[in-house]
Structure formats: structure tokens, C-alpha cells
Design brief:
99 residues; alpha+beta; two-stranded antiparallel ribbon
């Protein structure tokens, strides 16, 4: 799990997601054997237009990860739940922190 803070839009995460995929796909030498792994990542975002619990966010990320796995190796997929506009997202975060 990775937490990316201060994103204004889902597209802001994509360069980081591509770098994570690249890093994970690098071969690793272990006991004279080269190991290669593939990664499937699912991504959800907070805050969202409608309030979501941590469990709901994890479920969204899990569903997106499943879509990435079905699409092939070394993929990521973003959940389709929309983020609010940047200014309202900051306001929602402030209200959440006040509780």
C-alpha cells in the first residue's frame, strides 16, 4: 500500500504509479538466480465527491487491482469514483480533520 498526499487530480498520481511499476519490474538477483515479478495495482482516491470509509476505499482499490490483473502484467487501474474539485476537496479534508 502506498499513500500519495496532496494530489489535485487522479492524473497527478500517474507518474508515480509508472515509477512504482518500473521499480517493481526490475530483476533481482537472489542466491545466483534472477527473479522477476510483475505488479498489478489498484488505486482509489480520498476525498471523494461522496464520503467514503476506509473499507470502501480499500474495496475500490481492490476492484481496480482486479481490473489491472485481468488486463495483463505490470498494470495499474484507477477507481472510477470521482474526486471533488480541488477547492472543495481541501474543505472536505478540513472538516474531516475537525472531527
Amino acid at each position: 500500500m502506498a499513500l500519495l498526499a496532496e494530489l489535485q487530480s487522479p492524473q497527478d498520481a500517474e507518474s508515480t504509479l509508472r515509477r512504482l511499476l518500473e521499480a517493481a519490474s526490475q530483476p533481482i538477483l537472489v542466491a545466483d538466480q534472477i527473479l522477476r515479478v510483475s505488479v498489478s495495482m489498484g488505486v482509489s482516491f480520498y476525498p471523494q465527491a461522496n464520503p467514503s470509509s476506509a473499507d470502501e476505499l480499500l474495496h475500490e482499490a481492490d476492484m481496480a487491482m482486479y481490473q489491472a490483473k485481468v488486463s495483463g502484467k505490470n498494470q495499474y487501474r484507477l477507481s472510477m469514483t470521482p474526486m471533488p474539485q480541488a477547492s472543495s476537496a481541501r474543505e472536505q479534508q478540513r472538516r474531516h480533520q475537525d472531527h
